Amino acid sequence: MKTYKGELIGSTIEVVGSKNQTLIGLKGKVTEETKNTLTIQGDSKKKLLKSHITIKIDGQTIEGISLQKRPEDRIKK
Questions:
Q1: Handedness of CA 28, 64, 37, 69 (dihedral sign)
Q2: What is the pTM of this model?
Q3: Number of domains the chain is built from
Q4: Position 63 in a domain
Q5: Residue 43 — φ and ψ, nearest 5°?
Q6: What is the pLDDT of residues 6-56, one digit of tens each?
Q7: Residue 14: CB partners within 8 Å, gap ≥ 6?
Q8: For a disulfide at 40, which of 16, 28, 65, 71, Cβ 3.0-4.6 Å?
Q9: CATH value at residue 16
Q10: b/e map of 45-55 (b: 16 or more CB within 10 Å)?
Q11: Would you tell me how many other CB atoms lie within 10 Å of the CB of residue 66?
Q12: Is 30 inside a domain boundary?
């Protein structure tokens, strides 16, 4: 499982997999990140559970479960 060590806030992401099929294809800029959620701003503001999504960022496909840490802890390691 790939992990993403960079900062997510300010990055543009696309949801490529989700337990909620209506979220697939959703694109936006990450405006907020917590241990368990990402908030993205696209056409509207959406809060996404990291454990339920797979995202594409900078050409990489990342399982949301691998991001499920506090942002500062994920970047340190």
A1: negative
A2: 0.86
A3: 1
A4: yes
A5: -65, -30
A6: 889 999 999 999 999 999 999 999 999 999 999 999 889 999 999 999 999
A7: 25, 26, 27, 55, 56, 57
A8: 28
A9: 2.30.30.210
A10: eeebbbeebbb
A11: 14
A12: yes
